[in-house]
Amino acid sequence: IRVMMLAPVLLCLSVIVRSGGSTAKGNGLKNITIPWFAFYFMGVILLNSILMSLSTSGGWNDIYTEFTKIINLIGTFALTMAMTSIGLDATFAKFKQSGLRPFLLAFFIYIWLVVGGNILIRLFY
User: Fold this and answer.
1) How many helices (H) and strands (E) does the chain have?
2) Phi-psi category of 83—alpha, beta or left, where left has phi over 0 and alpha has psi -120 to 50?
3) What confidence score (pLDDT) does residue 109 get?
4) DSSP-derived 3-state class of residue 60
């Protein structure tokens, strides 16, 4: 559900940011910036759904399995390279310059995700 809601949430955020948080007339959908990558993302989800349904209904299962393995490998490599490039740019001076607030925010978000996720799992699983 989180992945499926990416494009609608980004579109709503774009409208809110463009209107300055207000819903006054004259602002809104005319001059918003559309996050096109979210629609491309939804297109890939649709393509995956079509390929998956073809693989289960016909003899495409081996092709679909190999295709998804290759895509997952490329995705893992791209994510690794992105994280590496972020890490290569990180220095202790930048950590010191940013101060304590970002680290406290990250810590509280981590705690929220662990505790909140645990509660949701216990409630709905």
Assistant:
1) 5, 0
2) alpha
3) 94
4) coil
